[in-house]
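A further point concerns the way the authors explain their paired sequence and structure data. An entry of this sort, consisting of the sequence and the corresponding backbone structure tokens, reads as follows:
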Amino acid sequence: MYLNDFSLTFALVFVIGWYLLQSISYYKFFEKAEQPGWIGFIPFYNYYVHMQIVGRPKWWVLLLFVPVVNFFIALTVHLDLLKSFGRYSYVDQALGVILAPFYMTYIAFSDAKYLGKATEMPKRIKTTPQEWFEAIVFAVFAATFIRWIFMEAYVIPTPSMERSLLVGDFLFVSKINYGPRTPKTPLQIPLTHAKIWGTEIPSYIQSVELPQFRLPSLSRVERNDVVVFNYPVNDMYNRRPDGGYHPLDLKTHYIKRCVAIPGDEIEVRKGQVYINGEQGENPEMMQYRYFVQTNQVIRDRVFNQYKIWEYSGAQRPDGTKGYVTLTTPDVAKQLEALDFIISVEPLFMDEGDAEPRIFPDARVFPWNADNFGPLKIPGREFTIDINEKSLAKYGSTIEDYEDLDDVVIENGTLKIDGKEVSEYTFTKDYYFMMGDNRHNSEDSRYWGFVPEDNIVGEASFIWMSMDENASLLNKIRWSRLFNIIE
């Protein structure tokens, strides 16, 4: 089960329900602390009294409205309140965080008594191992929470997004833009992904899985967003040592640019993307493959000067010599203006020259990476008539991503739970992703749509960039630090 967007009604019910439970528990806590219980229902003022009875500075109320900081302040005063009522064991703290505000309401109406301000209560004598344990547990919990809700760090391992993003760029990816997902595999070693560091051993217990939901988001995936997602295909990149595949939320991370959203019709003509019949917006640093014709040897420093990192000597069937490079259209023009360059031509495949691996099926649709489509991007409520051609386009998507238990596709027919259907309505939104390095990117042109539940977050900014081929003193690309990703 997966919910991409909560309705406004659901969000209001959730917020109001949470606040009422909190206020009810405040009512009882405040009465026990010899404060008027009705204050527990007054917004902001109840937080002020909370600070007062646990002994924290009153101005901390303002910090509850500062993003990120508010999480740590709320956690601190939350646990302070438990401590003020004699509940400060590890179990109390864990339940108070995981089951809040339900556990707080339970404690409020229990026989727990107010013992005084938490900050003025005698500190428990702890051994050094206990102090280290508590510090480590808190640090891991805080890091895990931030990684789940707000942001997570990623590194670019391949050149598929060059030159927009370079190999060695370290990114922060925002989870809240598209809404964080609840964990599908809850029993996992903290701060790991699919494997234990440095091994091929899964970092999670495979037998325990939960339904997955997406929390409310700030926005939706839009065209030209740079998106991190779980690579959807069950192949070698998602295979476990036992032959099975990692669960959805632990599949390999990919980063691409979203070029088409649900309802769009995408077409690629000679490398140019068209959306709904109109030319799509090209990324500023988009790259293609070019043949640079020259009778001279071009030194590495020349390519490096033009920030060309992928190049090799080549010769055409007619004997023409030169280099095959991957670069931007602007740089290609600059190269062509050089005295020792005869010509620079883009290397586009011919229309009708089908690539065997092209999506959805090269046997039916003789497309290639440079001449692709037209193809409609499915979304919720998008209905197709079932026939041989529509199943060639969308059959694998229905079979692999629509969460159906019994799907059989054969001889141009579709059977769901043993019943043949004449039409099918999609239950999820899907997206079409492409790398900015258009001739060196494994993307939706080869493996298909990205389901909505595979979306992880939006790439926000580069916080570090390392060039592994540079000398020791020049490894850091200082000009890329803290660049916003567009």
Notes: The first strand starts at residue 151 and ends at 155.
